[in-house]
Input
Amino acid sequence: MPVLRDPVRLIPLLFLAAIAAGTALLSLPLATTDGSSAPLITALFTATSAVAVTGLIVVDTPTYWSGFGQAVILILFQIGGLGIMTAATLLGLMVGRGFGLRDRMAIQVERNRLEVSDAQSVLRLILAITIVVESIVAAILTTRLMTAYDESFVFALWHGLFHAVSAFNNAGFSTYSDSVMGFQQDPVMLVPIMLAVILTALGFPVMQDLRANRLRYRRWTLHTKITVTGTLILLSGGFLATAVMEWSNPETLGPMGFGTKLLNSAFHSVMPRTAGFNSLDVGAFREETLVVNYVLMFIGGGSAGTAGGIKVTTFFVLLAIVLSEVLRRRDASMFGRRFGRSVERQALTVAMLALLFILSATMYIASVTNLPLQDVLFEATSAFATVGLSTGVTAQMPPSAQFVLAMLMFIGRVGTITAATALALGKHDRPYRYPEENPIVG
Output
C-alpha cells in the first residue's frame, strides 16, 4: 500500500491506532475504580494525552482509574515515547536520502550527520538508554518511598516505576492526586525525575553525538551545540524567573526555606519545557510567571526526543535570523556555521503553524467557556507543546473544548514531526522563477 511506504502518512496513522486501542481499553469497566465505563471523551482524552506523552487530565488519575487503567496509561505513554523517539530519529535520518554524493559527503564532514545505515545503532542506543535510565530512576524512587514514606514494597515499586517511566517519556502523569507537590522538600524524589526529563528532552541525535564525542566540544554537530547551549540558557532563565517572581508568593515559594525555594524553582524551570510534573500549584502562579511559562512551553525541548514545542533549534534559528537582519548581515549563523535557506523557511513554517493552532484553539475554547483567557491560553499552549502543566481548568471544559485540546496534543506531538519531515523530503524546485518585486515590510 502507498501509505505504508510513506512514513509521513504512516506515523500519524500508527499513533491514531494506538490512541484508538487505548480509548477502547480505558472504556472498559475494568479500567475505573467504581467499575463503570468511562465516558468516551474521558477515555479518548486520557489515551491521547498518554500516547502524545502530554499529561493533561480531565479526571484524577489515582482515584478515577483502577490499577488496570493506570497500567494501560503507563503502557500508552511508554509506547508513545518510544514510538515518537524512534519515528522522529529515523525520519530525521531519512531526510538525507534525496542528496547527491557530493552533498552527502559535505554534510557528513560539516555536521557529522548520521546516515540511514546507522538506524540499527540508533535504535539500540534508544533501547539501552530507555532501560538503563528508567531502571535507575525507578530504583531510587522505590527505595526512597519505602525508607522515607513507609510505603510497602509493592506500592513503592509501582509508584516508583510509574514516575520513572513517566519522567523518561516526559509524560507528566502521576499516581498522586497532587502530582509531586507532596515531595516539595525532598530532593531525592525531585532530582532524579528532573534529570530524567532533561536527558530525554535533549533528543537522541544529541545523545548519539555526545556518546561519540563526549566533551570534545569542537567535534559536536551544530545541532548538538545549539540544543545543549539553548537548553542551558532556557533552564537558567526559567530558574531565575520562577525564583524571582514566586519568591514571596504565599501560595507557592513563599512559605518555603531558602534551599527548598531553590530546589522547586529549578524543578519548575525544567517542567514547562516538556514534562508536566508540578511541585508547585500552577494555578496559584502570578500572571508574570504564567507569561514566562507560555514562552518556555512554546519553545519546548530538543528535536527527535520526547519533548514538545517548536523545539530549541527552531527557536534559536529564528533568533539568529532576526539578529542577522538587525545587524544587516548576509547570512544567519551560529557557532561559525550559516543556516541554509531551507532550514530558515522550515523554522518559520513550524513556528507560524504552531501559533496558528494555539490561537485558533484558544479562541474556540474561550468562545464556549467562561474561563479566564490566561487559563485557556495556558491549557492550549500546554496541550500543543505536549507539556501537561495545567492551571486546573481542563476538567471544567465542555466535551467539545476537551476534544479540541486532544486534537492539539496529537497535532503538537505527531504533526510537527511529520510536517518538518515533509518539508525536508518534499523539496521540489520549480523549473522557473517569478520576477522579483519587494513589498513594503514593517
Q: What stands out?
A: Residues 96-114 have pLDDT under 50 and may be disordered.
